Amino acid sequence: MHELSIAESIVDIIGDSLARNGGGRVRSVKVRIGELSGVVPESVDFCFKAITAGTSLDGSTLEIEKTHIVALCDDCGKESSVEGLVFRCPKCGGANIKVISGNELQVVEIELDE
Amino acid sequence: MAVVTIERKVLQKNDEIAQQNRELFQKNGIFVINLVSSPGSGKTSLLERTLEHLKGKVRIAVVEGDVQTDLDAQRVAKLGVPVVQIVTNGGCHLEAKLVQDALSNIDVANVDLLVIENVGNLVCPAGYDLGESMKVVIASTTEGDDKPLKYPAMFRNASVLIINKTDLVPYVNCNLGELKKNALQINANLRVFETSCTTGAGIPEWSEWLRGKTKRT
Ligand SMILES: Nc1nc2c(ncn2[C@@H]2O[C@H](COP(=O)(O)OP(=O)(O)O)[C@@H](O)[C@H]2O)c(=O)[nH]1
Ligand SMILES: [Mg+2]
Ligand SMILES: [Zn+2]
């Protein structure tokens, strides 16, 4: 359970960005969390609310975009989504696949009140 | 209303320090494994067996990560190997910065193989790069055969799977074939070893393979 430290890092990144962009009130924060990131989106949301309560980010909401696992096949070059945790290319059956989406854990953007 | 684009990895700071660690390892020709598993799968036991096997053949150092106590470091130190204990005080995984700090207590110029025993946890350590050459995941037979499906990120990010406690197969409901099938479904490139730290079965095969990865072969 490291969602608390993840939420803290998100707050730090927001702080950095505000410092560079002259501040403002944050209405919402968009984060991207992949299915294979090992992070539970609902827990991040819970922790974010808990640590921002009473701070300048109190009331800001997390908008979580969940990404599914997508793989690129090294053998046939096709891209496909990984279903049911079967990490094989559904097109050619090959196992030489690279996960190109699903590991994300990113702060995408913040929306500021005027 | 204004939108500020950020597009930054949440763990970017950790990744940057991991990269610094990796450069230090490469510069000194050190092969580094990040040993991960549930609590009690046998990380320290496997390490002890491996150290015994490689003693005098490879120069090894160890970083021990635990939530509390330096009991594991004491076990390893008994084998005459340099060991640094990191106590995370509740932290459920090691981070690159903790390893970087620990490295200042290791004579990196005289090490061929560094083993980092992570905190027992199959979830969080998967996301934290420490700068290692590879992750080695241990699944023991007492945990059943479905662990790879429950913790896919860890098995996907690992390069080696060690199935430990094979001596207990007759007593537990764990189908080795099923366990391997599940693991390879998540990651077909996993190199699989079967070991028993009690009988010593499989230890030479694993240790020699690991020795082959280091520069001093
Ligand atoms: N029967 C059996 N027990 C083992 C084996 N490997 C480790 N153990 C036992 O499992 C327990 C936990 O081992 P330890 O190495 O401390 O696990 P760690 O928490 O992953 O470092 C100890 O009581 C070990 O003696 C094995 O191969 N077979
Ligand atoms: Mg241990
Ligand atoms: Zn294919």
CATH first level of chain B: Alpha Beta
**CATH class assignment of the domain at 2-68 and 102-112 in chain A:** Alpha Beta
Overall morphology of chain B: globular
What is the straight-line distance between the termini of chain B? 62 Å
Largest sheet of chain B: 7 strands, parallel
Largest interface: A-B, 34 and 30 residues
Q: Please name the fourth-level CATH homologous superfamily of chain B.
A: P-loop containing nucleotide triphosphate hydrolases
Q: Helix proportion of residues of chain B, in percent? A: 25-40%
End-to-end separation of chain A in angstroms reads 36 Å
What structural category arises from helix and sheet content of chain B?
alpha/beta
Q: Which structural category fits the helices and strands of chain A? A: alpha+beta
Describe this structure in words.
The complex is a heterodimer of chains A (114) and B (217). By secondary structure, chain A is of the alpha+beta class. Helices cover 27% and strands 33% of the residues of chain A. Chain A has 2 helices and 6 strands. Chain A has helices at 3-21, 41-52, and strands spanning 25-34, 61-67, 70-73, 79-81, 97-101, 105-113. Chain A is elongated and about 55 Å long. Chain A starts with a helix and ends with a strand. Chain B is an alpha/beta fold and 217 residues long. Chain B has a single domain, classed as 3-Layer(aba) Sandwich (Rossmann fold). Chain B is built from 8 helices and 8 strands; from the N terminus they run βαβαβαβαββααβαβα. In chain B, strands 4-3-5-2-6-7-8 form a 7-stranded parallel beta sheet, with helices on both faces. In chain B, α3 (71-77) links the parallel β3 and β4. The mean pLDDT of chain B is 95. At the A-B interface, α1 and β6 of A face β1, α6 and α7 of B. β6 (105-113) of chain A pairs antiparallel with β1 of chain B, so a sheet runs across the interface. The site of magnesium ion has 4 residues of chain B, from α2.
